[in-house]
């Protein structure tokens, strides 16, 4: 059972975006959302929906499972900090 979001998931997503060379605005356009919402995700203020997690994983070329593990901690088996 998922118990809590990881504390560093926003930095993980931001790093992926930066590695692609995209601004928040460009990333938002690719994900069909707003720059403001991307900023909130990257700051850990909101948690993306399952639909958005799928889109993020596709855009960043990472597996859906890897991204879910970066966002949602499930102690004691979590790789999150």
TrEMBL record:
<dbReference type="GO" id="GO:0003677">
    <property type="term" value="F:DNA binding"/>
</dbReference>
<dbReference type="InterPro" id="IPR001387">
    <property type="entry name" value="Cro/C1-type_HTH"/>
</dbReference>
<protein>
    <submittedName>
        <fullName>Helix-turn-helix domain-containing protein</fullName>
    </submittedName>
</protein>
<feature type="domain" description="HTH cro/C1-type">
    <location>
        <begin position="13"/>
        <end position="67"/>
    </location>
</feature>
<dbReference type="InterPro" id="IPR010982">
    <property type="entry name" value="Lambda_DNA-bd_dom_sf"/>
</dbReference>
<dbReference type="Pfam" id="PF01381">
    <property type="entry name" value="HTH_3"/>
</dbReference>
């Amino acid at each position: 059972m998922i118990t809590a979001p990881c504390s560093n998931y926003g930095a993980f997503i931001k790093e992926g975006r930066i590695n692609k060379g995209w601004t928040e605005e460009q990333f938002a356009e690719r994900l069909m959302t707003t720059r403001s919402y991307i900023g909130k995700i990257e700051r850990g203020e909101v948690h993306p929906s399952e639909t958005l997690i799928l889109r993020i994983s596709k855009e960043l070329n990472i597996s859906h499972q890897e991204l879910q593990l970066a966002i949602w901690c499930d102690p004691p088996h979590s790789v999150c900090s």
